[in-house]
Amino acid sequence: KEYIGEAQAFSTQNTAELETFRIKFLGSKGLLKELFAEFKNVPNDQKKEFGQVINLLKTSAEEKVKSIQEALESKEESKEESKGFYGDLTRSPEPVIIGSRHPISLVKNQIIDIFSTIGFNVSEGPEIEDDWHNFTALNLPEYHPARDMQDTFFIQTNPDILLRTHTSSVQVRYMENNKPPIRTISPGRVFRNEAVSSRSHCIFHQVEGLYIDKDVSFADLKQTLLYFTKEMFGKSKIRLRPSYFPFTEPSAEIDIYWGLKTETDYRITKGTGWLEIGGCGMVDPNVLKNCNISPEEYTGFAFGMGIERIAMLLYQIGDIRMFYENDVRFLEQFKSSI
Ligand code: PHE
User: Fold this and answer.
1) Distance 93 CA to ligand 1 centre (A)
2) I need a labelling partner for 64 at 20 to 30 A (CA). Which of 1, 37, 126, 322 fits?
3) CB-based contacts of 50, cutoff 8 Å, min separation 6
4) Using a 6 Å cutoff on CB, does residue 269 contact ligand 1?
């Protein structure tokens, strides 16, 4: 009975002491073993009481061991947790993964560098435009059939608010706010309601150039484009194909001869080696008038190029959709180009 008191009163914070207690009471040479062995020597009339007492001692000791063990384990766990708060300070650190610039940004920055060398600055404007800056000022009055050349995402009609279909809108803004001579390029994102395929997307990037001064001629335009393609691609075989834009007259399509060295070249250029990278022309006198510049005094040229097209050639990317998928396996490949 004394032992029952002892077992019930026992307490410790320490696993070694708990083990000593367990061996003393429940071990193979422990007290309970001895008492059970004693049982047969107890006179019959006392057997019942003796039995009850040793059973009580047994359960008391067992419960004690169990409850102290649980308490010690949960203490151990919370110690582990608090260690996790600081982490294991001796562990070597996780490697830091550094991002890379997007290929569109890489090409855009390169284009800006090339044109800034010959005196062009960079201008920007809003992606959400009004009808005036995207169409009307650019010699595309209401109901002009050429408005359909660029399938437009309208945000609101009457008055029309839309996602700009080209960055020519930035040039209108620039001419409205600056006097010639003007030499500016406007890189930016544009939107067209077109079916998405490997060759075209409803969101893409353009860089437009505008040069307005006295006596600017088509020869200046061609030389500027030759200089650009030489710097950008290391070669400058270009073709200016007569074309039509409402805001330029005369107008041309700019093709660059890239060649057919790889399978991707075949895919991108449709097997011809030539790729259309944009449009250009002499700024239409009506556009100058709309922006309060006198066409009698000034002339100018403008061009617009697709940044994706240029990036596809340079980096051999066969599908335009890859630019917008944000797949790290694609993006990681531009790390060395930072
Ligand atoms: N804005 C035209 C387009 O997006 C390109 C262009 C710009 C053509 C400047 C001529 C002059 O298709």
Assistant:
1) 51
2) 37
3) 39, 42
4) no
What number is the ipTM of this complex?
Answer: 0.97
Measured in Å, residue 207 CA sits from the centre of ligand 1 at 9
CA of 326 to the centre of ligand 1 (A): 28
Structure tokens that stand for 228 in this block = 């650009």
Q: What is the pLDDT of residues 310-338, one digit of tens each?
A: 999 899 898 999 999 999 999 988 887 65
Tens-place pLDDT, residues 227-256 = 999 999 887 789 999 999 999 999 999 999
Which pTM does this prediction carry?
Answer: 0.71
- Check if 309 has its Cβ closer than 6 Å to any atom of ligand 1: no
- How many alpha carbons fall within 13 Å on the CB side of residue 331? 14
Task: State how far the Cα of 158 lies from the Cα of 326, in Å rounded to an integer.
Answer: 36
* Separate counts of helices (H) and strands (E) for the chain: 12, 10
pLDDT of 149 > 80? The answer is no
Tokens encoding 308: 């994706």
- Indicate whether residue 280 lines ligand 1 (CB < 6 A): yes
Q: What is the DSSP string of 298-337?
A: -EEEEEEEEHHHHHHHHHT---GGGGGS--HHHHGGGGGG
Cα 135 to middle of ligand 1, angstroms? 12
Residue with tokens 């180009």: 337
Residue nearest to atom 10 of ligand 1 (CA): 280
